[in-house]
Design goal:
The structure is a single chain. The chain has 184 residues and is mostly beta strands. Helix content is 14%, strand content 38%. The protein has a single domain, classed as Jelly Rolls. Strands 1, 2, 3, 4, 5, 6, 7, 8 and 11 form a 9-stranded antiparallel sheet that branches. It has a two-stranded antiparallel sheet with strand order 9-10. The chain is globular, with a radius of gyration of 32 Å.
Length: 184
């Protein structure tokens, strides 16, 4: 007795299904597309005409990168934490000065002693100020035009060499920040 008797008809019935199955695996692969063109940072218009910010302004948070309190500490200032950083959009680079109005509180200075505050523009040290007594201060210094950016944010970092550490909650406080930015 032959085991192949009747199988030819089975082969014919299965073959078209099998062929369709195999053809499904021969589909063209989708075309490759290049990634979208990369564009430079598009800065928001909110700061395009404001190279300077008051900490009491409603939109002051838009200028804060890090280490500045999100809430007002009084009517016109915010706490600067360990290393406050702000960002600005500039329309021109020539003839600008960095101006930062800040203060040191008696309670914090009692723990830290005199504080040296350094001011950086786009990672470059612009100047330092030694603060040995409590009170309000202004740092102002001309900024070389080639330090400033007009195609992206210009960053300002205020770096105290010592910070007050709260015994209650461990918060690190450095100075009170009133306003900062670039002026003619």
């Amino acid at each position: 007795m032959s085991y192949t008797r009747g199988l030819p008809s089975l082969r014919l019935a299965v073959s078209p299904v099998f062929i369709l199955f195999l053809c499904g695996g021969c589909a063209r692969s989708p075309q490759a597309w290049p990634p979208p063109e990369q564009k430079p940072l598009e800065v928001e218009s909110w700061a395009a005409d404001r190279p300077f910010v008051e900490m009491a302004a409603a939109d002051a948070g838009e200028f804060i990168v890090r280490d500045v309190s999100t809430v007002l500490g009084g009517e016109s200032w915010r706490w600067g934490l360990a290393r406050p950083e702000l960002r600005f959009v500039l329309q021109a680079a020539e003839g600008l000065k960095l101006r930062v109005d800040f203060g040191l509180v008696e309670t914090t200075l009692a723990q830290t002693g005199p504080v040296n505050v350094s001011f950086f523009v786009n990672g470059r040290l612009l100047g330092r100020m030694r603060c040995a007594a409590p009170g309000d201060r202004r740092f102002e210094a001309p900024v070389p035009a080639d330090w400033l950016r007009m195609d992206s944010y210009t960053h300002v970092v205020i770096e105290p060499d010592k910070v007050y550490v709260s015994p209650q909650d461990g918060a690190k406080l450095s100075l009170t920040l009133y306003r900062a930015g670039f002026v003619q």
